[in-house]
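Standup notes, structure subgroup. Blocker cleared on the uridine 5'-triphosphate input:
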Amino acid sequence: MKKITKAVIPAAGLGTRMLPISRTVPKEILPIVDRPSMEYLIREAVGSGITDILIITGRNKEAIENYFDYSVEYKDVLQAKKKERELADMEEVCSLANIYFLRQKEAKGLGHAVLCAEKFIGDEPFAVLYGDDVMAAEKPVTKQLCEVYENYGKAVVGVCEVPYEDLKKYCSMKAEKIGERTYMTTDMVEKPQTKEEMFSNLAILGRVVLTPDIFDILKHTPLGKGGELQLTDAMKELARTVGVISYEYEGKRYDMGSKLGFLQANIETALQHPELKDIFREYLKELSKTL
Ligand code: UTP
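Run returned:
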């Protein structure tokens, strides 16, 4: 089975759930304590054996590119101030992977963003990391999915159990268990509104590994919910024709595209941050007495 070395990170969405900040700061670069969330995604990809990453951006998303660009001004200042640790950190971040950028001229949906990556991907399987989902996991979630792909040779969607009342927001999977945390999926339904429509409480969240046949499917997939080209509509066709694997990954997902997810990521990361953890824990304990 071909090793997966390429990833696509769609990051061109308008982020309406994060308004008003998303009008000026891309949600994909919002901080988790002192690092932009996109750095966590890049590190996850690199830790999964990915060497080449295409970030799909759009208007007002230049801050993402700037962060991964080597900054000569900072180099000079950090050298002069003898801030060696910060300088080494900047150099490491700028050389994590081969990172490429491509603009999606209009935010026409996640499926359209993935279709923009066709030339970059060519005829290879590839990972998609949804740009506003940060994963905390011992083994990178993308790596978990790549290993499943290598076992089965089929597209793999990362799934989690979600409460039935929340499934209305997600894509519910028809899932027949075939192994530990692993299900054969032959159908799925996007944003089911009634319990009868729902296949299971397993929903796609944040990470998928796709085969290149998804591009031809995307090209003839009609526009779906919200007048956008939905990636799930194309994955549904893949499931119905050749089947996809659902894998219940191990890890915690933070939805950086929502205000609550942004706060949870920051508080939980601060509680582990080497410089902050003790003082922040004390602060939270004091604060909680007032709640
Ligand atoms: P979302 O559906 O969460 O992004 O897409 P959104 O449309 O920005 O969200 P809201 O509902 O308005 O807040 C998941 C990922 O796909 C990217 C987004 O940037 C996000 O990282 N995306 C979405 C694109 O790259 N292009 C699109 O047209 C849509």
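Discussed briefly. The first strand starts at residue 6 and ends at 10.
Next: hand off to the docking folks.
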